[in-house]
Design goal:
This protein is of the alpha+beta class and 464 residues long. The protein has four domains: 69 residues; 123 residues, Alpha-Beta Plaits (2-Layer Sandwich), CATH 3.30.70.60; 87 residues, Immunoglobulin-like (Sandwich); 128 residues, no CATH class. It is built from seven helices and 22 strands. The strands form seven sheets. Strands 1-2-4-3 form a four-stranded antiparallel β-sheet. Strands 6-13-12-9 form a four-stranded mixed β-sheet, with no helix packed on it. Strands 17-18-19-20 form a four-stranded antiparallel β-sheet, with helices on one face. A hairpin with a 4-residue loop joins strand 15 and strand 16. The longest helix is centred in the N-terminal third of the chain and has 67 residues.
Length: 464
């Protein structure tokens, strides 16, 4: 055999070996796959059987529970027992004019028997919630198939409901009424009513009232003080008040208006003093708790802790000064200067009093706020002394304006003599007045002509 033939035989032999190995590997892999599939199928069958077993156990447990909750298997007994219980429950719930009537009964296969009842009557919403709670709290095999209620003319609710109850065929003939409450009703009757009724179906939720006053109330010692609590309700409803705890004897509280009345004595400790003479009472404020509840639906309330602080009465205030009276000096005018036999006379008309004062040298006067005396009177001017100062007042002049000028140091006016001689002083003394008499008229009317030479002439009627 040649070398080439030898190589060819080796190649063919190797090919057969590879083909045989591939065939053997495929057979092994198929066997492994078949085994795994078989194991998976068996596992699924085992799981299915376990599920059926668990379902059967659950069904058996459920059936045992149903057996406990079921009505008696005797149809007459079952219908009578359940109707009696339902009628008692309806009456306890406050259903007026209540009626409980059987409406239908029919078997369902060979498993159970179904009974139908119709309940009707009148009650309030609160009574309806109580009836439903009592119905579902009883652990019977029953349900409410249909429920209808609406307002009546008297303001109550007309209630009608259709109920189904079941008795299992395998239940005991003398099965007793279950006494336990159903685990499906987790809340008590009060909690159920609070959850269902304590809401407003037609308006936004009611907001609690808000305390808008001061946290510290002040009570003045020795004085009676009324303090009304300031509370705002968002819905504007009325607010009722309730005080927790007790108040001291000097305090009281009106719950209808929310008003505190404080009347503490001048010394809260009945006059007891400490060794240094200070009050023995504590300065710590009194704490009170007030509960405020609105009248909205549903009601909302808040509690507020307030402090009552005792304070000493304020010092008495000085009385306000009386308003100034009208000053007669602002309406007093010099109307005339009249010469008599011995001296000159100044006529001063006080218009507010309707009188004319006739003043001579040395006379005192008090007109409004002006109080003084007459220093001198001449044919042209009157010299007045007021508050130690001298003021000049001329005919038709106002007394208040003359004083406001404050010119007491002005030089006195002089009059030119009619005969061309030396001038005479305007403030000549009463003794010198008669010396000038020969040169002047003796009658008052002639002397007043000089006064009429002023800027505002004086009426003749005032001179007379």
């Amino acid at each position: 055999m040649t070398q080439r033939e030898r190589f060819l035989a080796m190649a063919v032999g190797g090919l057969f070996v590879v083909i045989a190995f591939q065939w053997g590997f495929n057979r092994y892999r198929d066997a492994i796959k078949f085994r795994d599939n078989r194991l998976a199928g068996l596992q699924n069958e085992a799981n299915t059987l376990n599920e059926k077993l668990l379902a059967g156990a659950y069904a058996d447990r459920q059936m045992g529970e149903y057996m406990v909750r079921s009505l008696p298997s005797n149809p007459e007994r079952a219908q009578s027992i359940y109707q009696s219980w339902l009628l008692g429950t309806v009456r306890e719930a406050g259903l007026r004019d209540a009626g409980v009537d059987p409406v239908s009964d029919a078997p369902v296969g060979d498993l159970y028997y179904r009974y139908g009842f119709r309940v009707s009557g009148k009650t309030t919403l609160n009574g309806l919630v109580g009836l439903l709670h009592d119905f579902y709290a009883r652990d019977y095999l029953h349900r409410i198939r249909e429920l209808n209620f609406g307002p009546s003319r008297t303001g109550d609710l007309n209630v009608e409901m259709t109920i189904d109850a079941i008795s299992l065929n395998n239940a005991a003939i003398d099965a007793k009424i279950p006494e336990r409450e159903s685990w499906r009703v987790a809340k008590s009757l009060d909690e159920t009513r609070q959850t269902i009724l304590n809401r407003n179906f037609f308006q936004p939720p009611n907001q609690p009232p808000v305390y808008a006053g001061d946290a510290t109330l002040v009570a003045v010692k020795g004085e009676k003080t009324d303090v009304r609590l300031k509370v705002d309700d968002p819905e504007g409803t009325d607010v009722t008040y309730e005080l927790e705890g007790e108040l001291p004897e000097w305090a009281s509280f009106k719950a209808d208006s929310g008003t505190f009345t404080f009347n503490p004595p001048a010394d809260p400790e009945d006059g007891e003093k400490s060794g240094d003479g200070s009050s023995a009472s504590s300065d710590e404020p009194l704490k009170v708790v007030v509960r405020m509840t609105d009248t909205g639906y549903p009601r909302r309330q808040i509690e507020k802790t307030l402090a009552v602080k005792l304070e000493n009465p304020p010092l008495p205030k000085e009385p306000d000064p009386l308003p100034p009276k009208f000053d007669d000096a602002t309406q007093t005018y010099l109307t005339a200067l009249v010469q008599g036999r011995d001296d000159w006379t100044a006529w001063m008309n006080v218009r507010t009093r309707g009188e004319t004062l006739k003043l001579q040298v040395g006379d005192s006067f008090e007109i409004g706020s002006m109080k003084g005396s007459v220093k001198s009177v001449s044919a042209r001017v009157v010299l007045l002394e007021i508050d130690g100062k001298e003021y000049e007042l001329r005919p038709s002049g106002k007394l208040s304006e003359a004083v406001a000028l404050e010119s007491p140091e002005q030089p006195k006016e002089t009059e030119a003599p009619t005969d061309g001689g030396a001038p005479e002083a305007a403030d000549e003394t009463p003794a010198e007045a008669p010396a000038s008499a020969p040169e002047q008229s003796e009658t008052p009317s002639e002397q007043t002509e000089e006064a009429d030479s002023s800027e505002e002439p004086t009426p003749q009627s005032q001179l007379d």
